[in-house]
Predict the structure of Reverse transcriptase domain-containing protein.
Amino acid sequence: MKAAGEKMRLQLNEMEKLRHEAYENAKLYKEKTKQYHDKKILRKTFEKGQKVLLFNSCLKLFLGKLRSRWIGPFVFTNVFDHGVVEIQNIKDGSTFKVNGHRLKPYFDANFAANIESQALKEPSPLS
């Protein structure tokens, strides 16, 4: 009877060690995946006066697959703590604060016009 109880106690101790080891391995895995993910994150930087688009997060019924979920453009005016950003509506001049994650840079149609193009020549035949 004592031998069976002793064997059960050893098995419980082993199981506790395995559980602790699994917990430590899961913790290490989470740290590594967090480091990998954080390395891939690109920080958005905006300058005062820059035009930005705002993500429209209002849920609407039957939104439509191809309809743009970005509204604007707005003018970036100020940055506050905890990622809060102040933007100004171009149409009526009203300002309001939003989370910086909801913004992306806006490029005008004339942005593409500023790109230079260079014509390529046909290579001369080898003789």
Remarks:
- The chain is about 35% helix and 25% strand.
